[in-house]
Amino acid sequence: MIRRLPGRKYALIFLFLPLFLALSFNAFHPVAIAKSNSAKILLHKAKACAKTLYQSKAKKKYRHNWERCIKRYEKTYKTFPGTDEAARAMFAACKLWTNLYGYSGRNSDIDAAVSLYRELVEKYPTHRLADDAQYRLGEIFYRYKKDSRQAYVEFLKVEIKFPKGDARVKASKMMDKLERLLGKKRLAKGSVSGIKSKKKKLIAIKDIRHWSTPTYTRVVVDLENPVKYKKHLLKKDPDLSKPRRLFLDLQNSCISKEIESSILIKDGLLRRARAAQHDKKTVRVVLDIDNMKAYRVFHLYDPFRIVVDVQGKEPKVKPVKTVVAQRSKKEKATKKRKKEGISLAKQLGLGVKKIVIDAGHGGKDPGAIGRNGLREKDVVLKLANLVAEKVRRDLHCQAILTRKSDAFLPLEKRTAIANMKKADLFISLHANAHKNTRCQGLETYILNIALDEESMNVAARENATSTKNISDLQMILNDLMLNTKINESSRLAKFVHNGLVKELRKRYKIVKNRGVRQAPFYVLIGAEMPAILVELGYITNSIENRRLKSETYLKRAASGIVKGIDLYIKDMELAYKGG
Ligand SMILES: [Zn+2]
Predict the structure, then answer these.
(1) pTM over 0.70
(2) Using an 8 Å Cβ cutoff, are 223 and 250 in contact?
């Protein structure tokens, strides 16, 4: 017996050990038990309150009954934040606010639902209800606030923030519906302006510009004012000697006699671009294509222009797989690498060789201006030169500047340069501005829809357009994101941003880190490589203005950016070796 007992004890321990380990520190911890139990009790009470309310027609008529249940849920999520019950309580409270709005019609009720859903998405992004909360936001804007554009953006956020969530399918259906709806509205508006346009002048096409290589071409159609347009890609002609055609029909427009209506491109990708008056009110722009893999069409504002990006088929390169799979080849590559001191990643074309450094603004566009007259375009040009120098010296990479002097360069040309040069990274340098002179800090951006108002304002300023046009851009951004390297860009942004903040903090006491963010920047659209935009501080803030003026600060900043790029490259090579 004496021997058996410990044996049994051990057997029991072994039996329960896995269970114990699995549940140990969270649920079985005495404090955790107490917490979740009482959170459970609070949630249970709140649910009971809501149940009686929903079952009684009489009770639903009185506001205080609704508010009492909402308070119960509020108590749950405020007393036990971070618990599963808190997220569930928040979600239930949002539903109550929404339903209460159905009775009260008070805007403040639906606004309370909106802000609480937003809080839930922000505080509990990994909770299973987070994607549903984001979906509900879309629904509120669609059904109650009758703001289809905002609804579209909220549904788009479901796709972007919760690509694996189950609300994604519903959201995507709603987006299809809204696209049709908004498309119809646009047509309806078009017919109204069509009547007016009998009196109005037609909108003239001012210019057709293009930048091209055998694998990438960007064509830009410049117009006097915004027009509606449609794109068509014709099927391949059975007669193979005839090129395939992509054309745009621009409504209510005319072609001015001054512009060359047929432009020979002949880069192996596009044969030529031509524009002609198709009928009284339509101009047709036709691109004759020799070789095309993919294309995208979008428009930018102020001045209005339509951009067509055409990607050609790449010349065939050795697939990476075969090198990895065949040992002897890999060994050979390793030997070669040791001999030449070049990393395997670089030999396989995975490394970074060319970096485009883009100094924002220039020429007639000064960018942001400080009270003392300090101009963003001058600051960032100095910085770009310092960064380029360091890239060459420290990273032994080629650095290409989009502008070397105080010259004006359209935003769409900057990305075109990077694509044509087949750059591996694109880094656009800027300084920020704000009405509030106390605003300061560093931000780094990637291209995506803006998730907050501040980012939207920054994009509007950098794009030299209104926030209204930005919200228009947010809607079409989904289509433009094809081929965009979001994950690589956000990895690059993280490394560069951290490098910058770390380096500056070595010398300066207060360096406010405003983090990596996202917004729709014209200058990043269509970039075929990881691309970021760095905001180096606020020219409108007296402390940062003084810094941006000083050579020391810019040198430190350049050093931080290049250290960040270096770590990004090393991390990429490590990931490759590891895989
Ligand atoms: Zn700028």
Answers:
(1) no
(2) yes
